[in-house]
Amino acid sequence: MGNYVHFITNPLSYQKVLCHGKYLDWKKFHFTTSAKAFGHRTIDPSDGNTTEKISKAFVKTLQGDALNSLTEAMMKNLQLVMRPPVVPESKMPAWVTEGMYSFCYRVMFEAGYLTLFGQDLTGQDEQKTLILNNLDNFKQFDKIFPALVAGLPIHMFKSAHHAREKLADSLRHENLGKRDHLSELVRFLNDMLSTSDDMENAKMQLAVLWASQANTIPATFWSLFQMIRSPEAMKAATEEVNKTLENAGQKISFEGNPICLNSMQLNDMPVLDSIIKESLRLSSASLNIRTAKEDFTLHLQDGSYHIRKDDIIALYPQLMHLDPEIYPDPLTFKYDRYLDENGKAKTTFYSNGLKLKYCYMPFGSGATICPGRLFAVQEIKQFLILMLFYFELELVESRVKCPPLDQSRAGLGILPPLNDIKFKYKFKHL
């Protein structure tokens, strides 16, 4: 028999649900799903690696001082991928036309991979081959991810199964040992899972790779696309980027040192923050799941409900993100929706005249909130800064319609576009 699922649709009740945390278990669903998708065993406390320990490891290695190190590495790696080879200005390439989603996919995958899993010590050619192979394998595996979450066995998808195993093999301890500048997260997991089977460890690292890419890539696309197609957003973002870089003493150069902005400077960019937030509001479709550990009474804004053990409580924030009372004209991209009248971050929104504690939830909530959310926003922001800094950007079709969302991934996070959008770019000659 299946489980009863209770969908909480009133955003004023979200806080009430999270206050019942002692009755609700988020770990069972998340780690069981992870085991099905990536092929590792479910977390066994007898190994000393409890879900709490692993969760704390993610927070420790993705926030605080570790976040500063990740942010610095990502900025360098993005420029390593995006900046052209050193050539005379006269030989700089003219306009390049490409699918925007494809462009975001390859740039963010490579830069993100290098940031988490370091650089190959054997040489650039070997590294490029590894990245290209892993990019292709990642796409094949990720394509069938919704089916795996739904419970279908991966053996039904021969090529995707092969791709997953190849990805995991590249992340084995022996292969990671050939790489330099591993992130603190990857090193921490290697040490924590040192008593596990090597392939078991590798599949946990694969889960980290997927979590770092699968939502960040479409989020990057939507942020870039929405910004480019809005003249007002482009103007405001360009002015903010130029001002930030000028204050930081950074100048465009294809031959000199890459630009560098610290976390404090990146955090003081409310226009880009608002563009990213608005893009994610329109494209996120995450499902927040909790399982009842015992029978209890759930007290909500509009009444009390009896919940049975093993019942599932589900929050679907997209309903809130598209609520016209909270967000007027909710299907329209408004780059300044998250800015107040002074151009600072706006955080206060209302439903039925009451202030909402939770009004923006693309990264989950409470104990299940994504530990890497701060890094995800930083890397998208870095990408947008560099795109505006290094390139002239245009849509091939200036009045192109917004592509529909790929609803096959509803519940998993940021929905990718159903079709790609052509754009063109060229390096600035300054």
Question: Top keywords for this entry?
Answer:
430 residues, alpha+beta, four-stranded mixed sheet, three-stranded antiparallel sheet
Task: Provide a short characterization of the protein structure.
The chain is α+β, with helices and mostly antiparallel strands. The protein contains 17 helices and 15 strands.
What does this structure look like?
- This protein has 430 residues and is α+β, with helices and mostly antiparallel strands.
- The chain has one domain: Orthogonal Bundle (Cytochrome p450), CATH 1.10.630.10.
- It is built from 17 helices and 15 strands.
- The strands form six sheets. A four-stranded mixed beta sheet has the order 1-10-7-2. A three-stranded antiparallel beta sheet has the order 3-15-13. Strands 4-5 form a two-stranded antiparallel ribbon.
- A hairpin with a 2-residue loop joins β11 and β12.
- α4 packs across α5 and α12 packs across α15.
- The chain starts with a strand and ends with a strand.
How many individual helices? Answer: 17
What is the CATH H-level superfamily? Cytochrome P450
Query: Which value, in Å, is the CA radius of gyration?
Result: 22 Å
Distance between the termini: 66 Å
Percent of sequence in beta strands: 5-15%
CATH topology: Cytochrome p450
Give the biggest sheet: 4 strands, mixed
CATH architecture classification name: Orthogonal Bundle
